[in-house]
Amino acid sequence: MSTLYVSPHPDAFPSLRALIAARYGEAGEGPGWGGAHPRICLQPPPTSRTPFPPPRLPALEQGPGGLWVWGATAVAQLLWPAGLGGPGGSRAAVLVQQWVSYADTELIPAACGATLPALGLRSSAQDPQAVLGALGRALSPLEEWLRLHTYLAGEAPTLADLAAVTALLLPFRYVLDPPARRIWNNVTRWFVTCVRQPEFRAVLGEVVLYSGARPLSHQPGPEAPALPKTAAQLKKEAKKREKLEKFQQKQKIQQQQPPPGEKKPKPEKREKRDPGVITYDLPTPPGEKKDVSGPMPDSYSPRYVEAAWYPWWEQQGFFKPEYGRPNVSAANPRGVFMMCIPPPNVTGSLHLGHALTNAIQDSLTRWHRMRGETTLWNPGCDHAGIATQVVVEKKLWREQGLSRHQLGREAFLQEVWKWKEDPGTSADLSLSASRKGDRIYHQLKKLGSSLDWDRACFTMDPKLSAAVTEAFVRLHEEGIIYRSTRLVNWSCTLNSAISDIEVDKKELTGRTLLSVPGYKEKVEFGVLVSFAYKVQGSDSDEEVVVATTRIETMLGDVAVAVHPKDTRYQHLKGKNVIHPFLSRSLPIVFDEFVDMDFGTGAVKITPAHDQNDYEVGQRHGLEAISIMDSRGALINVPPPFLGLPRFEARKAVLVALKERGLFRGIEDNPMVVPLCNRSKDVVEPLLRPQWYVRCGEMAQAASAAVTRGDLRILPEAHQRTWHAWMDNIREWCISRQLWWGHRIPAYFVTVSDPAVPPGEDPDGRYWVSGRNEAEAREKAAKEFGVSPDKISLQQDEDVLDTWFSSGLFPLSILGWPNQSEDLSVFYPGTLLETGHDILFFWVARMVMLGLKLTGRLPFREVYLHAIVRDAHGRKMSKSLGNVIDPLDVIYGISLQGLHNQLLNSNLDPSEVEKAKEGQKADFPAGIPECGTDALRFGLCAYMSQGRDINLDVNRILGYRHFCNKLWNATKFALRGLGKGFVPSPTSQPGGHESLVDRWIRSRLTEAVRLSNQGFQAYDFPAVTTAQYSFWLYELCDVYLECLKPVLNGVDQVAAECARQTLYTCLDVGLRLLSPFMPFVTEELFQRLPRRMPQAPPSLCVTPYPEPSECSWKDPEAEAALELALSITRAVRSLRADYNLTRIRPDCFLEVADEATGALASAVSGYVQALASAGVVAVLALGAPAPQGCAVALASDRCSIHLQLQGLVDPARELGKLQAKRVEAQRQAQRLRERRAASGYPVKVPLEVQEADEAKLQQTEAELRKVDEAIALFQKML
């Protein structure tokens, strides 16, 4: 068996790294050698078994006398091969290896240097601020990377995260106090996320972050003696001390010298701080255009940028389909785009899932509008039957001490409308849905949603209510809607049937006590109770044992079922069992639904309270006896059970069975408990007469529409789900026992004629529907052949399922069934965009009802986006504290502010504390101000993750920095253009453009192509990536840098061409970004001069760039600049290798042929600007490079020689390189021995072998590079 030797010291982070890797290996594919998991030994290995030299901990021995591996990096990789993130050599694996190397070479030295002196484990010869500064420099790349990433490589922890987290354990435990952690906010968030993973927690326990108060001394335990330093280490430390002493002496002398002349000493350089929130304070009445005539603020501020634009857009009518045309019916060769919003609940408040929906929908709407299409995005709000009634009932009880039944239906509905219209009545709930300033519409406007607010509608509005009535009556007349008594999901607390989507399924692993509304004590679930039924007429006292998780329902049993092939019960055919509490016997029926292998193979049958039992009862003609009323109290049962609440009856039945000697046992049983997501009550299956919709034929038509291609569902993977649902659809219960909602337009008929027998509720013949009572009366009189005066009608008290009115939304908002201009133009719609979780509940029902009522689909395409989860992959839940208001991301909020929101919610106190802990873990410093544009752009960029999005709010902050980059780039560009700049009438090049001008136009052409292509394919990450890359990596990083010497030069023709090209980049680039970032692009666009006087007034109605407009693809210029960028990257790499950060070394280019030489000469000026090089010269073919140059390859046709002579200390560099060479040789030798070990090709997984080969190749390449550098410096001595 293999053994892992680790240090027992709690701060021995290399050993902790190996132990955590072992945990991941246990949970995953296992260790890399394919054997069993190693045993852990908390001491050094016996010297008799160790190789020479003794291995440092952690060390891994693969079986007695087997291969030894030591060092945290090698051991961790062997224990957790899947932690590489992919096969060796893959992009993911390379990224992991790069971060592991960074942790080993940069983070560990910096972390130890900052921490060990603070703990008294090493005397620091350096200034404490200096070592903390070194730690800060090591953390900077991490902080920058983690702005846009949850983990270092991929969407889950890898070896990269393991190496970096364990390297930083000491600083986070002992050095980085709360102020420091606020500086390194992204690193802290990532660190906390990692150490909370189960594998980390199993080894580290609860990691307590440094509070700022340290004990006076911290000495290592006896089991962790200080390791003796080598001679090389002692020599190195002596040199450091000597340098430090010289530096301190020099500083002391400088401080003693008086300032020369009258010059004042320079003020101490202060740390650059965030300028804070900049606001727009100019007086601008709502609806007036924002004043942008003044200078741009120094930095980007979301509050300044986003002020005043939206009211102006709305006032100008830019969001209306009529804008720019006489009416919506006017012919438009560009076509029509129509989409309706998924109507949010009137009681609700938008969260980040809604924000994703609206970011996608608004970007699409703005893109279509900018393309010139007649565009309508129709807003609306859903009446949310159950949710609204619950809110108002609670309010009524709290304020007046009345129930809705005490108030009466009409008075209660008046209270609901009063609550709905009056924002003050619901201020405590933050759930106002008034006509003016309601929270949902306010949030939508702050998100920049370009909805036509004049067409906003509410599902209880008269226009929409008329459509609901019309649809019900038509479908009832056709027999599609019918009355039937069936089992429904029943909430005893709400006293209503509920839909499947309103049922949460709570999984239990065994016995669990749950809180149930209306019960003081918790109720037991997750157990299986066995009891016996005695066989009637048996002389041997024979019995049949059955088991149930709901023992109280045995009072409604009408039979016992066994499998027809079960030999244990064949002799009981035709016999009965005796019910112990009721005066009836129960037949033993034989049915194939019974699982012979579960329990005793005998099952109790309760048709009125279980769906499977109901179907068995139908097959065998069994009576369905309901034993619960609508409140959950027992009926149709004998005393002492009569009238008991259902879960009190559960205890009573169990006691009674024990008293009669029929109890046979109880055991834990994994089960799923259905809970009402509104009331948290346990859902009961109850038999109730309800209205149902026959869905079979409508579902077939909806399925066929997708098969034919008339309706496209994207991504196409969801089509399989669509067909599965349509093929297995069940009848749809549309009755709800509520008062708030669309009252069912159906009437029960009583006929005052002795020739007509009285009817019963389930008999559909005694029900008629009508658009009003008079119409219903005429129908009833005709049906029963009597005069209308003999007809009495009683309208159904129930209301329709909210999904029924929502399913009519694309029709009802346009005025159906009445003909209107909007209905003729905008139906069918173009697109329905929503989350994939309501594909069946809403999308399918819209398609079925649309096809049935109009013969046409309600839309031609359905795009389903991913579901938003938190950074840990958890579902958004108020009790977890991870439900985030988009406005809190836009404006920022403190941790205390998040806590205060919980206090104003309806969570239980225990849930509030749990949610606070979740908020504290995820947002220790609150949520920073990100702005609307960053939020929208970030959400759309996240779409690449697939089915679900693990959203890290802090990652959105990285896109605020992108906004700042846009701001600064435009500010620089406007200075470069100058006040008198006049753009040319067209964007076409003038013919005198430089190579870099042609290149940036070519890259802009590609960005335009990818953006349009991505929007057409709903590939939002492709669009965001193309636009981000153009602005950041091409325009800012390359073109603007190359432009600086041109704009400051003497060649006016070149400067004017550059200015025109720069203006084109800004103009087109801002238009490209506008659908995602409407505020910052409008702000910057309004500061640009216009090409033509009659240009559109706003960016949101300016034409979107299209490939036909931007057709400047230039392969020749791209090839030339690619060479320049390759040279630049190589020069920057060499400068970093030799720490030439403040020096501009000369650069000599060695080329393989004249063509490459000519190209290199053409781009040498760009290289000089981009690489901060001195002279950039192309060597003649065959000419040698000057002595003392470092060499790197730019391409297979061009090498770079960077002049180092006189810039570096050769002797010092040689010492560093010799040490590096020894370490690389040792690593390479260890890898060769490992790969040469017996059984390696067979025992070691292929991906580990590939990783070893890639690591060996990388190490050998490093060795060659080191040898070349050694040879270079030896020549310089």
Description of the molecule:
It is a single chain. With 1277 residues, the protein is α+β, with helices and mostly antiparallel strands. α32 (953-977) packs antiparallel against α35 (1052-1073) and α37 crosses α38. It has 41 helices and 37 strands. The relative contact order is 0.07. The strands form twelve sheets. Strands 14, 15, 16, 17, 18, 19 and 20 form a seven-stranded mixed beta sheet that branches. A four-stranded mixed beta sheet has the order 2-1-3-4, with helices on one face. It has a four-stranded antiparallel beta sheet with strand order 10-9-22-24. Helices cover 44% and strands 13% of the residues.
Topology:
Blueprint: E1 3-5, H1 13-27, E2 39-41, E3 59-61, E4 68-70, H2 72-79, H3 91-115, H4 128-146, H5 159-167, H6 169-174, H7 178-183, H8 185-195, H9 198-204, H10 231-256, H11 302-306, H12 309-316, E5 336-340, H13 352-370, E6 374-378, E7 380-381, H14 385-400, H15 404-407, H16 409-421, H17 439-446, E8 457-458, H18 462-477, E9 481-491, E10 496-497, E11 503-508, E12 512-514, E13 523-525, E14 527-535, E15 543-548, E16 559-562, E17 576-578, E18 585-590, E19 602-605, H19 611-620, H20 646-659, E20 663-668, E21 671-676, E22 684-693, H21 696-708, E23 712-714, H22 718-727, E24 732-733, E25 735-736, E26 746-751, E27 767-769, H23 773-784, E28 791-795, E29 799-800, H24 802-807, H25 809-812, H26 821-826, E30 829-835, H27 839-854, E31 859-865, E32 867-870, H28 886-891, H29 895-903, H30 909-922, H31 932-941, E33 948-951, H32 953-977, H33 995-1016, H34 1020-1047, H35 1052-1073, H36 1078-1085, H37 1115-1137, E34 1147-1151, H38 1154-1171, E35 1176-1178, E36 1189-1195, E37 1198-1203, H39 1210-1236, H40 1240-1243, H41 1246-1276
Helix pairs in contact: 1-2, 1-5, 1-9, 3-4, 3-5, 4-8, 13-31, 21-22, 21-27, 29-30, 31-32, 32-34, 32-35, 33-34, 33-35, 33-37, 34-35, 34-38, 35-36, 37-38, 39-41
